[in-house]
Amino acid sequence: MTRLEKLVELFLRKPSEVSFQDVVKVLEAFGYKERPSKSGHRVFTKMGEYAITVPTVKGRRVKQAYVRKILERLGLEEWYEKQHNP
After folding, report:
1. Where are the chain's structural domains?
2. 83: which residues sit within 8 A by CB, 6+ positions away?
């Protein structure tokens, strides 16, 4: 199982918070790039897709509600199932 698959599996367990670095790794793996920002919110963009805004807790943690939105936007449940049931 790859590191990305392990991170997606973590997201699918829907913990109360995940590290911001884990969110960055998943978003970057799916082609998103962080846009420079001066606020406490981080914005990730990808050509042809809507931006994903990720508010953080003290700059280090991301709440469950935002992890759930990332799961839905990226279709991670379907992606994970495809990886394990080809």
Report:
1. 3-84
2. 5
Fold for domain 3-84? Answer: Metal Transport, Frataxin; Chain A (3.30.920)
Return per-residue pLDDT of the chain as tens, 86 residues: 789 999 999 999 989 999 999 999 999 999 999 998 777 789 999 999 999 999 987 778 999 999 999 999 999 999 999 988 87
Regarding pTM above 0.85, the answer is: yes
* Helix (H/G/I), strand (E/B), else coil: 66: helix
- Write out the E strands in 3-85: 17-19, 33-35, 41-45, 52-55, 61-63
* Total length of the chain: 86
